[in-house]
Amino acid sequence: MSYPYQLKNFEEYQQAWQHSVTDPEGFWADVADHFYWRRKWDKVLEWNFKEPDVKWFTGAKLNITENCLDRHLGTLGNQPAIIWEPNDPEERHRILTYRELYNKVCQFANVLKNNGVKKGDRVCIYMGMIPELAIAVLACARVGAIHSVVFGGFSAQSIADRIQDAQASLVITCDGAFRGGKDIPLKSVIDDALMACPSVKKVIVCTRTRTPVSMLKGRDVWWEDEIKQVETMGNPPAPAEEMDAEDTLFILYTSGSTGKPKGVVHTCGGYMVYANYTFINTFQYKPRQVYFCTADIGWITGHSYIVYGPLSAGATTVLFEGIPTYPDAGRFWDIVDKFRVNVLYTAPTAIRSLMGFGLGPVNHKDLSSLTTLGTVGEPINEEAWHWYKDQIGKGKAPITDTWWQTETGGIMIAPLAGITKEKPGYATLPLPGIQPILVDENGNEIEGNGVNGNLCIKFPWPGMLRTTYGDHERCRTTYFATYENLYFTGDGCLRDEDGYYRITGRVDDVLNVSGHRIGTAEVENAINMHAGVVESAVVGYPHDIKGQGIYAFVITEKKHHDLELTKKDIIQTVSRIIGPIAKPDKIQFVSGLPKTRSGKIMRRILRKIAEGELDNLGDTSTLLDPAVVEEIKQGRL
Ligand code: PRX
């Protein structure tokens, strides 16, 4: 496998970026030419950001799994595709070559077909990080089913919401999942979720933890039994379904500033080209290197940079079941040492947490194989950046701080490792093909350097979302209506004197807790479900390890109750409704919330209080009840 579109130096980067602006269609056609299409496109791009209506490679036919698997068999059949490292270091790791992965995906594609799955059906996947998760994802893509992977940390209620929204007909899960010292009973969570999901006709359960599970007759089947059945059929071939470039590949739910999470829709052709192109260029991946992304496949990072990007590039991708601190805080470094990892892609929150354990867990681990380091998901503070650079990369490996979103499908702004300049805390420059602009509140472009504004993108790119599932209007209003003819990211951004971009964080009511995106409205809705709660307001505050913590201001009914117990109950409620990732870090009971005369909560004031900026609250005289601010200040946690 060679990558003719891998940029090799700064001049090539500059030329490519120029080319992508003056002739975007030509630029992307050149990249797309290096994939396997059953039929090539009639037109590279048709678009408007008004409706929005964006189509890439119209008329083209393909199946992404033929690009991730079939086309590598001749040259890379015996190369490791996936190296799987289990949660428990005592358990044996597994290596799946491209041929083995291909065979397993074909087998499971036949399992899906035997269970009635057809092109266009929605399949919900709720599994731990085992190879079968990647196999399930790829098998869906092979038969043309739309996968919706739900992160294993979400609650039954969250799963039910996602299944109902997508009207999924089949669920793939495990008996349980190992994560650190915990054994998470996935199947039992699914059983709870499915009480409210009549669309689901079948559940396929893969064995992992051997936790006892209840199997519902006629609905639930074992993964292993279904595979045996395919084997007794003589392992028939599993031809890949021919997909239109604009057919949906997957839905991935993500939080916004209002209401329930929305299903971001990505399509087959554009997403494939973009995930692959960004993988190869950002990490400067070289054939036969070992690449390790520590994300979970339940998030977009796992979709694009554990599964589709690396596999479409014929790379060797490490899949790790566990957590960075189990059995101790040296686990990532053990994995790097064990498999001679060359490229490591992780989150600032993990780096900050591991930094806290000092150098003990790093010392005596051989990290000399590392050539490239990456981060994603949230701003990285300079201290963590330097620790990563010096202690992990030993000062030699370039760091690529990659800015992107579930909606963008792939990396948008980032240094090309070792090719373009890095700058601590900065995502630096846009990839060729990406045209960022900063705008002020009225949508006027802010030109020049040394400026701050809201980050927008003014031209389409192949990996961008096409819609939000079942509600196109929501897609339009969320991303394309704030500023005319622009995609609005929701992020604030600085462009420094050199023209380098630094993401300063969300400007909407979305929190980023340990790199997980959580809507404040979602957490408030969950808190408000608790019987004793009258009203609540949630804001973020700076947290040393998580980046942002969740601070909840809560009004309860005036009863004599044990406030500590109520706190615990509220946390339990949030955990049950959303999942443990959304648990508030601080809960302050208040008698009122600062509101405008029209009844709108003044989050700006609450945010300042949570951040401890008590002297700088701005004008509070227009509030309905200015006295309440004083009370909240006094009670600050
Ligand atoms: O605020 C930005 C932050 O994460 C948001 C996207 O979250 P999500 O869709 O969950 O995707 C995360 C993984 C791609 C963005 O709007 N974010 C992501 N990467 C960075 C970042 N903030 C600063 N620097 C980054 N490198």
Question: Into which percent range does the helicity of residues fall?
Answer: 25-40%
Radius of gyration: 24 Å
Class of secondary structure makeup: alpha/beta
CATH third-tier fold name of the domain at 10-65 and 266-504:
Rossmann fold
SSE order and pairing:
Blueprint: H1 10-22, H2 24-32, E1 43-48, E2 53-58, E3 61-62, H3 64-68, H4 73-76, E4 80-85, E5 94-97, H5 98-114, E6 122-126, H6 131-143, E7 146-149, H7 156-166, E8 170-174, E9 177-179, E10 182-184, H8 186-194, E11 202-206, E12 220-222, H9 223-232, E13 243-244, E14 248-254, E15 262-267, H10 268-282, E16 290-293, H11 300-312, E17 316-320, H12 331-339, E18 343-346, H13 348-355, E19 372-376, H14 382-392, E20 399-402, E21 436-439, E22 451-457, E23 467-468, H15 472-480, E24 487-495, E25 501-506, E26 510-513, E27 516-519, H16 520-528, E28 533-543, E29 547-556, H17 563-577, E30 586-589, H18 603-611, H19 627-634
Parallel strand pairs: 4-17, 6-7, 6-8, 7-14, 8-11, 11-12, 16-17, 16-18, 18-19, 19-20, 29-30
Antiparallel strand pairs: 1-2, 3-13, 4-5, 9-10, 14-15, 15-23, 21-22, 22-24, 24-25, 26-27, 28-29
Helix pairs in contact: 1-2, 5-6, 5-9, 7-8, 10-11, 13-14
The structure holds adenosine-5'-monophosphate-propyl ester.
Adenosine-5'-monophosphate-propyl ester binds at residues 254, 300-301, 376-379, 401-406, 427, 489-491, 503, 506, 512, 517.
Domain AMP-binding enzyme C-terminal: 522-600
InterPro entries: Ac_CoA_lig, ACAS_N, AMP-bd_C, AMP-bd_C_sf, AMP-binding_CS, AMP-dep_synth/lig_dom, ANL_N_sf
Protein name: Acetate--CoA ligase
